[in-house]
Specification:
CATH class of chain B: Mainly Alpha
Shape of chain A: globular
Largest interface: A-B, 74 and 63 residues
Helix content of chain B: over 70%
Shape of chain B: globular
Structural class of chain B: mainly alpha
Oligomer: heterodimer
Strand order of the largest sheet of chain B: 1-2
Largest sheet of chain A: 11 strands, mixed
CATH architecture of one domain in chain A: 3-Layer(aba) Sandwich
Order of helices and strands of chain B: HHHHHHHHHHHHHHHHHHEEHHHHHHH
Strand content of chain A: 5-15%
Chain lengths: 450, 569
Amino acid sequence: MSNSSSILRVAGILTLAVGLLAAAPLVQALEDKLVVVTSFPKDLTGAFKAAFEKNHPGVKVEMLKKKTTAGVKYLQETASNNTSDMFWASAPDAFEVLKSDGLLQKYQLKATGIPDMIGAYPINDPDGYYKGFAGAGYGIMWNERYIKAKKLPAPKEWLDLAKPVYHGHVGMSAPSRSGTTHLTVETLLQGEGWDQGWALWKEIAGNFNTVTERSFGVPDGVNSGQFGLGVVIDFFGLSSQASGFPVQFVYPTVTTLVPANIGIVAKAPHPEAAGAFIEFLMSQQGQELLLDPKIRRLPVRPDIYSKAPAGFPNPFKDKSIGAKVKFDVIKSKNRYNLVNSLFDVMITYRLDDLRAATKAIQDAESALSGKSNAEAQKLIAKAKALVGAVPIDEATGLNKDFAGIFKKKRKKATDKVTGRQAEVEAGWDNVIKANYTEAKALAEKAKSML
Amino acid sequence: MSYFARTSPGPAAVAVLLGLFLLVFLVIPVAKVIFVAFQDPHTGALTLVNFADFFNTSLFRESFFNSLYVALMSVMLGSVIAMPLAYFTTRFNFNGAVLIQTLGVIPLIMPPFVGAVAMQLLFGANGSINLLLDEWFGINIPFMEGLNGVILVESIHYFPFILINLSAALNNIDRSMEESAQNLGANGFRLFRRIVFPLAMPGYVAGASLVFLKVFDDLGTPLLLNVNNMLAPQAYLRISSIGISDPMGYVISVILVLFSLFALWTSFLAMRGKEYATVQKGGGGLMKRDLRIWEKVGAYAVVIFTLLVVLSPHIGLTLLSFGTIWSYSVLPDGFTLVNYQEVIGTTSEYITNTMLYAGLAALIDVIFGIAIAYLVWRTKLVGRKWLDYLATGALAIPGVVLGIGYLRTFYEFEVPFIGQPLASWWVIIVVALAVRRLPYALRACVAALQQVAVALEEAAENLGATKYRTVRRVVVPLMSGGIIAGFVTSFATAAVELSATIMLVSAESDAPLSYGIYVFMQSAAGRGPGAALGMIAVIIVGVATYLSHRVIERGKRERAIDAVLAGGV
């Protein structure tokens, strides 16, 4: 027997042993069930459920679909007698809420080859409680038939949506209704500055057709042609396109990529199966499923993009996607509820007044174009400033005591807060309504002078 | 009445049981959630400061008046739609009266989300009708804009409450009243105005007050039209976006409940001091006569036009479920069966669950409805009116609040032998549906009972029947029209309920159809299959309604024959 062959044999045995060891976690019996609370659509959950159950026969996956906010509430209310294993949803802030309530448990990821950042956002929770499995960014989608019939140009940037030509054609959800919409609002506020950012949002909102109650209401409205353009998260645009609707999607330069996440619930009844599910999600096979035309989310494994169809955005190569704004997570977190409340008071609930004021300003401006009338110009500028005005400055928004009014829970019994959210909002509402009314009157006066 | 004033332990025991049920499954869970309304948001102390905030906020005041306006206008428009349908089908010999009455119930079965999409595709600013109007006349009618849009959709959706209750009442009017009036020389419109309509008043008021309360508290329609400045959407948006501990959402809920009870009390006042019961039970229902030919044409034209309008959402739903892509066009680009193929495998479980849940809930509702109606109108138990107020108050509790209340109250209560928390056992969904739909059945039963003369019961008891036997053999059969009306409304609306169900479904295998539709309607590719599932829901409930109508009609005919035979002997 030659030396080399015995070496080969040893190597073979070693390989086998290593193989067995590596396979051990798979062989080790998982629990027979896995309960996942998720906000994702059936197209996504169905694909992962089927593939996972095929890999692990004997484990039955139960997908419990709830809206993100309802899912959080469900886990909070059922914590005393928990029957859920995992929470699987987009918005990172929902996971932050669960984490701070002690409803998640840490998990050490075994899979390798996943970078730390997607765009300017960390993929995984630094504390290890939840993991990002796919990226998503906000952009503009539009209905081709609609803009053709109404003779509208195709938009490229957020600023385009503020143009008078789009008046009454834009739809968006409110940041208080969807965590990802919130990130878009916050991104623009951070990218453009507090006052400038809000003024821009109100210029865009002046063109709104509607503020939808659900985030899916926006792609739904664009798909059916109820309104022409919508501010949506990328997979809504991409998957609508893949389903055959005559729609297009574009990322503006100022956008943020955020990870969609998964985490294991504290005291999960089936922790082994839950761990296996995370590993599957991060594996080559799991990440490839994200490219499915009905799913269309950005994988967190850079190597998967070589298998993507042509034209599929790649944030790891195309550094312009989501890299422009350095997103300040702490700032965002501190004023989270306050920004939601401001948006609702100034835009969602006063949309009719805002639209009327915007229309008057747009009409006055178009009447002014080509003429010179210093007084009219002054009046229009004053009207615009009134519409753009924010009741509080950035420093007040970041002031701990003031932002505390909008906190959902007191941290300690000694925390002292003066003022109630409803009281503050009523004050804002009075100012905003008066501003919009006055702005409309000024713009009309300006127009009558031309 | 004095006859029934004698205290007997039976009714009292039933009243206590019903009160206990409502206490455990309505009052306590809701109180667990809405006590936040009376808490200082920061110190947790008891306070009314939140109510002061409510009245100080112009947005909330505006919302209140908008809700009131929409509710009143919807009752009016709903009456305009319902009255001809009810009158023609009960007053004249009309082919397919049962079919018309059944189709009239279909609008109640508006599946969540898909119904909204279908409405927008037909009536929206860029929907089929406006695209056609624009092409032909260059005009665009904002059917779906603002408060008027809400009124239109609400009236189309809820007018069946008036139709069902009014038809039941008209069918229950004694023919001899009409004959007496005719003998005295009244006929035509005067007969309708002075005799028929006043006698049918309990049914009309029952229906109209339901429409008012339902529209006043309705959440789905304003949300689908993105109208925020109304009370119910404000409550919902505050609770679901600011958080479960925000007091204002609950303040609004409390105000909704109080105002609903106030409206109910007003309708009681309107009905007080009037006698609607008729003693003779000769032939049930009004005399039916044949229409002259031109009358027939007119009547058919009105009925067909009305049905076309009220069934348009379902016509849209049909197109959506068979369509491929439907985007900014009059009709879908093409037609296909793919959507049905996709759902057919997954639906059988959803269908069984829906039939089971909605059927059980509606059964519980009519039984409780009869019991409460009887206790309130036929006994002198102390606090009996409160049973009615309490049960009806359920109408004003947002589904989300009830759902969360159940989770909070029953999650730690293990069901004996099942070994599962009550809050995640499927029976809790049935209870939630029963509590939420009890007001419908109750109003129908109350209206029916008001048309039954006490003298008939006294006669039965004088002949030696026990109270239980009297209720079973005399009262219930005489109320059957109203009972079925109650069953149908409870069943049809429970079959498509979502807001409480979605909080309580804890396993896919326990989920009903509406949950399945919700799951599909979360993605662009799911719109067609979701619509197909919606159609299946509509058809099932429609068939169930038609069958129950048939059963009643047959029962009525048999009784009429019995009466004739008895008369002949």
